[in-house]
Amino acid sequence: MYRHLLVPVESTDACIEALGHATEFAQAIGARITYLHVLPASASRVTSGQPAALARPVPRRVHELLARAEAAARAQGVPCSSAVAFAVAGSVEEGSFETIAKAARQHDCDLICMATGAPGAQALAFGTPDAAGLPVLMCAVDRRPAVEAAIGFLLGAHRALADELHEWLDLFQAAGSQGSVPGATTLREIAAWLRGRQARRLRPEAEASLFSRLRERTSVVSAELDELERLHRRDEELLDELAQMAGQNTQSGTTAKQLERALSAYAQFAWEWMGREQGVILPAARRYLNDADWMGIHLEFDCAATLGRAAKHTDTISEPDGSRA
């Protein structure tokens, strides 16, 4: 039986679904996982006689992808680690299949699990010189329309929150690179964004609809649902605390630095519950919920998304940019 799986990590819906399949499979057979994100060749710096190195630090979004994957594995008791590799410049699909196969051998993996249609998937599945003798498990995608639509809403809500957090953290990073901190206007906008976050979120409907329907169908993930509901309550508390911090003293450089650290910590917390929802709850929902359940969830998510868009239109926050004082 397989002992060590290599699972490429990307941001697509299909890849997120494949991560869930791979984590469940690893748990069932007692295997461990190495998650791999392949960076484009342009991100590497090659020194004569030395392996390729990053030309700049690993992007925060890559850390997010890997953190979410690891959170799902931890929730299911699956040992895991993460790695970053560089694609081979100028080859098919930017060398993804070569890079993945090489990483699998480097980490002593005996099975590659990846989404159908992922970069390098076809080449690996049909065999390449680098992958010769290394089995590849292609994870199918659930194409039921109601399932795709409902899960698309939920993943869209996850991405919206992640994008907003990255924008604010990038702004802090840009200011820090110039030896300064964001000004009072930016801090007030962050405080307003945090206060308005509750009205724009989809999560209460996810708890009331997806979670409750899943509880009715199975007790397999009851403990995980309990934990996620606790994390969601804590999430609301953290957003309130961050809003208060941002609005305390917008003229203070100390406040800005404290807020940056707190926002960064909150982002890590958000990656945790997102990963658990994506890698534990959604696979269980696909297995246990029927078509009528998914139709109901889709309708409720659709209504929630409409309300969220309306709330966003009334929000007076301007988009983050480099022109703030």
Automatic annotation (TrEMBL):
Return the Gene3D superfamilies for the record: HUPs, nmb1532 protein domain like
Pfam families associated with the record: Hemerythrin, Usp
Source organism per entry reads Caballeronia choica
Q: Which residues form the Hemerythrin-like domain?
A: 151-284
Q: Which InterPro entries match?
A: Hemerythrin-like, Rossmann-like_a/b/a_fold, UspA
From the UniProt annotation, give the residues forming the signal peptide: none
Indicate what this protein is called per its UniProt record: Universal stress protein
Q: Which residues form the UspA domain?
A: 1-126
> What phylogenetic lineage does the species belong to?
Bacteria, Pseudomonadati, Pseudomonadota, Betaproteobacteria, Burkholderiales
Taking the record's annotation, the residue ranges forming a coiled coil are none
